[in-house]
């Protein structure tokens, strides 16, 4: 219940630091009776892992997940599922020069002031590496939601710096290193060149990511505070480097009239999805649509002004191995977070209202 | 811990419906020893209350708050503070025609499907009226944060539909009916005319709101999940009608380079505030800056297609008394929510790290 | 989530002090669709209320409950149910003499040291009067558990000071002022005389209470920490004046052999109930049996040594109106707390394992 | 927040099963800046571990703890501390005969009915082996409480079956295999013989354990629900095999008069400690005194009647390696649980009331 747990009923508590011996999480509240193996989890971890193209960090981590508990003879028992991932490719010496200074835009400064002590190796706890256990937990959540309700997840990059990426179909996402939903070769080449230039310049760039859940039953969510959309915003803004979250129309709603924004209903269902699948904090049965703004990586080679622990001026250049665009690997993470929100609300709904009868249309 | 509580250590649990006998909340965890009277709370309630101009709902509610507990001889005792506000101007007959249909863009549909029962009078629990107790609780939080840390709050409207409102100074906010930080008479007249047109057309419009906390010490927040920015996003997206949340640079971060986004540090402090006062989930000591997208009110007179409970087509026109722009009254609500997030993190920080020594510079 | 809430999924947050304007609670998480009126709640409140015999406090309180929210047209809506009870018979002047001293055995001392401020009128927040809202919330829980699962609750006094009270049948409990399950006129007369003597002496006495839940399905509870029995112990020890809790064999288990304690199973069910209906933290389907030790009231007229706020010696005699045996009115409170534990576990079980099929024997 | 976490601010989430690859826990909320090594934790684990005398289970486990995270250069960082303990001596074949039947008095029956699936190897999650991570987490809590407040912990066995063990001094506890606070050689010999007889008979026995915390400041606890004593009762009843909990006078309070039970105050402090260090749910500054009833082990060789999964009659004899008196190893576990309760309340108190000034007497 202290800060490092996510979810009330399907609770994920993570642990570990970028350069410690291992990272992992404990999933408490997974329903019993589901088939679960390490292979079920590994595929999502492989989508997130580093070193898969030249456009992401070159740290080499197999990110092999081990299930330590909660599964007996291949079936979940209802008791906590612990996932463990060894850290294999720590290169802590890269961080010697930043142990006493603060990277602009990085958590170095705030951790040091909050705790009075800080693990500087690879960013310690603030490293995006800590999203690996979350992706593992998300894979468990996704499996249950798919098998129980037919819920699916997808995500893609929609913008890389100033390059907008038109949506061309989910099937293209696995076929390029950017999670882009396009097969436009010219566009993809432009993105590759853009990233190559950035890398040479030692700089980094922001991105926009969309993530969607399909097949969500109507009725998940709570009226006030623990609204489905509020919990989604919490989950998404909690991902490393996220600075903005939209649901449905998002900031476009500012210029919309009520007669334009409110999705009309017909006997065949909703007309349009400005709501992004949530009304009054509760799912409508439509797709849940979310958009994220991801800031550029703060660990860059470009020299920047900063101070050291004594408050004296210092220049900071970060070497180490970093993603020049953390947005690239953010797609599977955002999917995992969305799955964790939905399973928590699915279980909460079941607690309060009993099993949803998914086979019976409720309109 | 069920959905209707906000905050872990300064927990606010609200109750009530738009047309029930009363609304209110219980604040659990307010530190003892603070002077507190109803007058301390009333001023923020008065900023939020309906009927203060022709541009908001004409429902007449005094919104007089009564403290039922937790204060003895004018001082908080550390035990729960219950706030009660009577509902006085219910006009439930206005809702007869929507009891069996669903307003497009409204929670009618989802509540009915989730619970199988629904209080249609004034939107029941989903009414923006339920933000009144939150504003009351927020006033208590603001007072403690101001007295303990010198933290201040401010908010203003930045955009009304397509009309952008340049920031001209906080002092203007109380002097116009829109919470606009401007004294540009032509602009304000344009906004008045815009709202008058909308009202005549029976339509509604979206808005963008900024809210800021000043004087926040460095160190509030948690590394993962219960990040300060994640909790702010949760709080803001949980306000009725919000569809998007930005912190600091927000969606602008998408097109920023790392060398542009990361706020440099000098011995005099940060240069710029792209971070919006949060790095790695923890406050930097700078202003916390938040921006919200608020959708247009879904209760409009313009006829819209919908269905009834049997699934048959129906046209819906909403009469009753509604805000044509819910964004107008959202400013004090957003301030209150931000205060609730900050007090919770202030107490959590005190639990984990002891009292912050606000008089000692920590750089 | 701060200390004054009970339950994770059926959460009850209470507020109020003995001599404030009102006391009450907010119930968050009550399932929708249950018929509920104030009369459903009043009957249990009447069992607990003061002034019903000469053996309890003579404070006159009607303890009329008002439902402020969460019920529409007589049916629970799934949104928070607020219960309000006015305080009517405060006589705060009785407490003038204890505002600056500490009653031995009372919370006066600890509240003052914890908070640095204390409402001395009637014990403020520490008064047993605060069990009234709990009994109200318990009545709601009992109704749902009875209608959904056929679960019933009963309780009785088993010992009054040194007077042991043999169990003679639940039907006798409402027929005497002690909640004694007996119609033994001589024994009851002895108890009356015993209490009369105590009252004249200005002293008080302890008691032992048994409470039982029947019809509980197998499977409620969690393996570790949030065990059903652990939560029952928490609930019972949290009742004012409770100093000991037993489940099933309780302290008798100390002298039992394994071959004696472990309840054997036959195709017809368990043989015996040493377990008290809980094994491994999870309900067995047998009766849940609980026993409580309740200390004597600390507000007595007998003069006692104490100190005042300056630390100087002082003698304390408490006048006011007090129960000479708080154990007498504890029975409906203990039933209510047991009901609150069970409904929380019922909902948690439903979240994790789906609806229990109560019509299908699971052996 | 699902059932397998303990504590709100110093939260311990455990995982693992008796015969899985490893067991462990994640401690979230440990304050930063404390020196911590594996050796600090190992000593308490060694007090609890199996195989240290012929009177406990002969399973051979080194119970070596590994710190996976949360400590950097020997200092806690304020981020989650993961503890891992490998299981080394699983002998799962011993459990073949109980996979399809239910041991009387054991969780076999309830787990199977709750989850529909069960890990029968060594009791799976219900094994007392799962108290090892708790003892590890408790050691961390003890260290912080000792260094910050000077709080100490001690425990001893007070009764083994019908053999009462007079308290002769804490210094004797480590010198015998029973955690008995005595050096009475005749008594200890009698206990040894008693256990030898039991073991030969294949039976088991109950026990009573006392546990004490010293040096606790006044003011830890909450008025209602999350009372210090309520949380202690929850913690203690949650330990495997506990059936009863007393604080201070416990069940003796039933026969006490108010003039006898209420601890008088003098300028030198309290006279007596019937309260057991808690009044009104808040610590008094006296020793916290707790007593536990522990049932006999349910895994015994004595043949007992039971049923199998089909509901048919079956006789059960349990072979495997079991403690004939689980009470023997319960002392360090009870100390650990008490420490976990106290650190949580210490942090909660600090959140609400600021740092306790332990160097300033507050009377």
TrEMBL record, chains A, B, C, D:
Keywords: Amino-acid biosynthesis, Aromatic amino acid biosynthesis, FAD, Flavoprotein, FMN, Lyase, NADP. FMN binds at residues 125-127, 240-241, 280, 295-299, 321. It catalyses: 5-O-(1-carboxyvinyl)-3-phosphoshikimate = chorismate + phosphate. It comes from Massilia litorea. Its cofactor is FMNH2. NADP(+) binds at residues 48, 54. It is an enzyme of class 4 (lyase). Pfam families: Chorismate_synt (PF01264). InterPro entries: Chorismate_synth (IPR000453), Chorismate_synth_AroC_sf (IPR035904), Chorismate_synthase_CS (IPR020541). The keyword DNA-binding does not apply. Gene3D superfamilies: Chorismate synthase AroC. Pathway: Metabolic intermediate biosynthesis; chorismate biosynthesis; chorismate from D-erythrose 4-phosphate and phosphoenolpyruvate: step 7/7. This is Chorismate synthase. GO terms for biological process: amino acid biosynthetic process; aromatic amino acid family biosynthetic process; chorismate biosynthetic process. Homotetramer. GO terms for molecular function: chorismate synthase activity; FMN binding. GO terms for cellular component: cytosol.
């Amino acid at each position: 219940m202290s800060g490092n747990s996510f979810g009330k009923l399907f609770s994920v508590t993570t642990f570990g630091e970028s350069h410690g011996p291992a990272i992992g999480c404990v999933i408490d509240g997974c329903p019993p009776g589901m088939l679960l193996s390490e292979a079920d989890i590994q595929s999502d971890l492989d989508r997130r892992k580093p070193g898969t193209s030249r456009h992401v960090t070159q740290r080499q981590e197999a990110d092999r997940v081990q299930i330590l508990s909660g599964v007996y003879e291949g079936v979940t028992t209802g008791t906590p599922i612990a996932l463990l991932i060894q850290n294999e490719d720590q290169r802590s010496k890269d961080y010697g020069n930043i142990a006493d200074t603060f990277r602009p835009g990085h958590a170095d400064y705030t951790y040091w002031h909050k705790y009075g002590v800080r693990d500087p190796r690879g960013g310690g706890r603030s490293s995006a590496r800590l999203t690996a256990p979350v992706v593992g937990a998300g894979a468990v959540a996704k499996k249950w939601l798919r098998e129980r309700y037919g819920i699916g997840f997808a995500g893609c990059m929609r913008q890389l710096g100033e390059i907008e990426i038109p949506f061309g179909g989910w099937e293209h996402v696995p076929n390029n290193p950017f999670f882009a939903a396009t097969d436009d070769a010219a566009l993809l080449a432009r993105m590759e060149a853009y990233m190559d230039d950035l890398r040479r310049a030692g700089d980094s760039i922001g991105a926009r990511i969309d993530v969607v859940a399909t097949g969500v039953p109507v009725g998940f969510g709570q009226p006030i505070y623990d609204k489905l959309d509020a919990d989604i915003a919490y989950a998404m803004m909690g991902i490393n480097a996220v600075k903005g979250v939209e649901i449905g129309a998002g900031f476009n709603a500012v210029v919309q009239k009520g007669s334009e924004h409110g999705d009309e209903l017909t006997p065949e269902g909703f007309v349009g999805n400005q709501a992004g699948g949530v009304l009054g904090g509760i799912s409508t049965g439509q797709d849940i649509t979310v958009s994220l703004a991801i800031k550029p990586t703060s660990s860059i080679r470009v020299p920047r002004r900063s101070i050291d622990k004594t408050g004296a001026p210092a220049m900071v250049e970060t070497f180490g191995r970093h993603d020049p665009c953390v947005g690239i690997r953010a797609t599977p993470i955002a999917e995992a977070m969305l799955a964790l929100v939905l399973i928590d609300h699915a279980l909460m709904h079941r607690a309060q209202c009993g099993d949803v009868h998914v086979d019976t249309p409720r309109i």
